Amino acid sequence: MTRIAFLHTGAVVIPVFAELAATHLPGVEVQHLLDDKIVADLGTDPDGRDVAGRLGALGRAAVAAGAGALVFSCSSISGYAGRLQEQLGIPVLRIDEAMADRAVETGRSIAVIATLPTTLAPTAALLRERAALHGADIALDEVLVEGAFAAVSSGDRATHDALVASAVRDQSASHDVIILAQASMAGAAAGSDTGVPVLTSPELGVRRVAETLLPRPAAGA
C-alpha cells in the first residue's frame, strides 16, 4: 500500500489527519480530497444521488492518482462507503467504525453527541450496526448541540468547544460512554474531563486503517 486517500468534508480536519497519518501510516503517501459542501447539501439531496455521484467522482480521481484505499473522514457520509467500495474495487474505510466498536465494547448506555443532524443520524445508525455485529444490546441517546456548528463556522472555536464540553458533562451522569460524532469535535474532548470515556474518531480510526491495510511485521522481527 503506497498511497491512501482521505476524503474530507471540512478543511479544518486535514492537518489533524495529516499528523496522525505521519505517525501511524509510516511509508505511506497520503492524498487529501475535499468537498466542503457535501454536508450542507445532504439535507437537500433526499435520495442521495448527487452526493453519491460526487463521492464517486472523487473516489475515481483517487484511484486514477494511484490510491490503493480510500478513507472517509466524515461520519455524515459513512453510509456511502459500501456502495463506493463496490464501484471502485478498492477498500473504502469509515473513520468512525473503530470508535463505534470501542463504544460498544465499553458500555451499554451510550450518548452520541453531534453539532449537525446530518451527522447525528448516520453515527447512530453505525453504532446500531456495530452493536448488532457484536451481539451487544445498547441503549442509545442522540444529542444535538444547538449553536455549536454555527459558532465554529464563524471562526469561534472556543464557543463551539465550550458548548460541546457542556453537553458532555450533561450526558456523563447517565451514560457509560460518550461519542463525539464529528472528527472536528475532537478538540472539545480536552475540556470535558468527567471520568466517563469520551471517544473521538481521528486517532482510533487512523489506527484501524493501519491495522487493516498495512502488512504486519513478521513474528520475531
TrEMBL record:
One Pfam family here: Asp_Glu_race
A GO term, aspect molecular function: amino-acid racemase activity
UniProt-listed InterPro entries: Asp/Glu/hydantoin_racemase, Iso_Racemase_Enz_sf
Domain of life: Bacteria
Coiled coil: none
Family label: Belongs to the HyuE racemase family.
Protein name as it appears in the record: Asp/Glu/hydantoin racemase
Organism: Jiangella aurantiaca
